[in-house]
Specification:
heterodimer, A: 221 residues, alpha/beta, Rossmann fold, 36% helix, B: alpha+beta, hypothetical protein PF0899 fold, three-stranded mixed beta sheet, 2 helices, binds guanosine-5'-triphosphate, binds magnesium ion, binds zinc ion
Chain lengths: 221, 114
């Protein structure tokens, strides 16, 4: 167009070949190096609203005796979960994402600045309740955990494969409710393992305490 | 809306390139999306069209999307095949596969006016 109209504008074409989330990836690498230097093990909890993420952190904190726990709490609007965890005496950095549906590595970086002085050994990141978007964002964590409750249905791995692909662990919560819902554990695990054959699965109930010791055992190792 | 977060990241990336090159505006961009990267192409396009209205340097731009097919290789028998997360090896029927392509989310090319 401009060659013909003579407006003096020139077109250039750049070949880029960069991942869409490369900026996030840069922050994630920065976080990873920082976490390593501070010798903190970082766990990213990803799951739908109400899956039991906050409850899992609460239960873990009550029984944990292997050093300090801190939490980065992602919540789109409120500080309620952060307050629940502070009530247990945990250092919590609340990230109110202002409606954004996931945490990104930069938010986590800023939040960790508030916690680094407490010198935690274990850092939980409770991602925003959502099984979709958080799976796109590496936060620099050591361990990515999907928290899925049996009331959500056995087909979730099929609908949200990215989250299950990224995770090393699936924590299947609310198994006390299994008698009341149509949820085939076998079917769910078989779908999850198709996506991720090495996925570790830990079924538990925070109501009865069943399976909780396996989770704690796993965290210790 | 996961496409919206991806598009937001894309726009940020493109604007940074524009500034770096001192360009006036973007005329086209090409994105590669893997077949099973979990992206709904129509939703992605829609999110882009919505966002570009708000960014003057992008208003005239055209988004091209290239779909990358899913290719896998069995770790046990080395068979190459096409499919997604739920496609087993056609020979051994198991899921111990390596994903060679299909998960791409990549900015490939940007064309701009300087
Ligand atoms: N029956 C039963 N209920 C549970 C269990 N774990 C959690 N719940 C309940 O599930 C509800 C949601 O739990 P939360 O821990 O707040 O869930 P969350 O994933 O943090 O939710 P968001 O932060 O809103 O995304 C609460 O009412 C819990 O008491 C369980 O093992 N069994
Ligand atoms: Mg919560
Ligand atoms: Zn095979």
């Amino acid at each position: 167009m401009c060659e013909t109209c003579g407006c003096g504008q020139r077109k250039i074409t750049l070949t880029v070949g960069e991942a869409l989330l490369s900026e996030n990836e840069r922050w994630a690498q920065k976080n990873r190096a920082w976490f390593k230097k501070r010798q903190v093990k970082v766990i990213n909890l990803i799951g739908s609203p109400g899956a039991g993420k906050t409850s899992l952190i609460e239960a873990t904190a009550r029984l944990w005796n292997q050093g300090k726990i801190a939490v980065i709490e992602g919540d789109p609007e409120t500080q309620r979960d952060a307050e629940r965890l502070s009530a247990l005496g945990l250092p919590v950095a609340a990230v109110t994402t202002g409606g954004v549906c996931h945490l990104d590595a930069r938010m986590v970086h800023q939040a960790f600045h508030q916690l680094v002085e407490t010198d935690p050994h274990l850092l939980f990141i409770e991602n925003v309740g959502n099984l979709l978007c958080p799976a796109d964002f590496d936060l620099g964590e050591d361990l990515s955990v999907v928290v899925l409750s049996v009331t959500e249905g056995e087909d979730k791995p099929e609908k949200y494969p990215q989250a299950f692909r990224r995770a090393q662990v699936l924590v299947l919560t609310k198994i006390d409710l299994l008698p009341y819902v149509d949820f085939s554990l076998d079917r769910c695990l078989s779908l999850a393992r198709q996506i991720n054959p090495s996925l570790k699965v830990l079924p538990l109930s925070l109501k009865t305490g069943e399976g909780l010791s396996d989770w704690l055992e796993f965290l210790r190792s | 809306m996961h496409e919206a977060s991806l598009v937001a990241a894309l726009v940020e990336q493109v604007i940074a390139l524009k500034e770096e090159k001192g360009a006036q505006r973007i005329t086209s961009l090409r994105v590669r999306i893997g077949e099973f990267a979990g992206v709904e192409v129509e939703a992605f396009r829609f999110a882009y069209e919505a966002l570009k209205e708000k960014v003057p340097e992008l208003r005239e731009s055209v988004l091209e999307i290239e779909i990358v097919p899913g290719r896998l290789r069995c770790r046990d028998c080395e068979t190459l095949f096409e499919g997604d997360y739920f496609t087993p090896c056609p020979r051994c029927q198991n899921f111990n596969r390596e994903i060679l392509s299909g998960e791409e989310l990549e900015l490939r090319q940007v064309e701009m006016e300087v």
